[in-house]
Amino acid sequence: RKMSLNLQVRDFLGTGKFEFLSEGPDFYSHRKFVRESPVIMLTLSCNLNNYKPERRGDREMNDFEDEGGEF
């Protein structure tokens, strides 16, 4: 619960390719994208404390009612 290790591998087989061709009467455009693969990410997360912000909305409403306030 305090520490986690995450390993992600993307495009392991090297299939991340994109090619686009567009042409018209006055232009010709050819684009080709090949991803560097594989992409490997290793993430280490550490929880230093158990801080949880307190919910103020319900508490403020109860304090108002205790004082005899009305809406």
Quick take:
This protein is α+β, with helices and mostly antiparallel strands and 71 residues long. 15% of the residues lie in helices and 42% in strands. The radius of gyration is 28 Å and the shape is elongated.
The helix-strand sequence is: EEEEH
Count the E strands: 4
How far apart the termini lie comes to 44 Å
Note the beta-strand portion. 35-45%
Structural class: alpha+beta
Q: For the residues shown, what is the average pLDDT?
A: 82
Helical element count?
Answer: 1
Name the overall outline.
Answer: elongated
Low-pLDDT segments: none
Instruction: Give me the side-by-side strand order of the main sheet.
Output: 1-4
Estimated helix fraction: 10-25%
Radius of gyration: 28 Å
Report the sheet with the most strands, covering strand number, pairing sense and barrel closure.
2 strands, antiparallel
Describe the structure.
- This protein has 71 residues and is α+β, with helices and mostly antiparallel strands.
- It is built from 1 helix and 4 strands, in the order E-E-E-E-H.
- It has one helix at 56-66; strands at residues 3-10, 17-23, 28-34, 39-46.
- The longest helix has 11 residues, at 56-66.
- The model has no long low-confidence stretch (mean pLDDT 82).
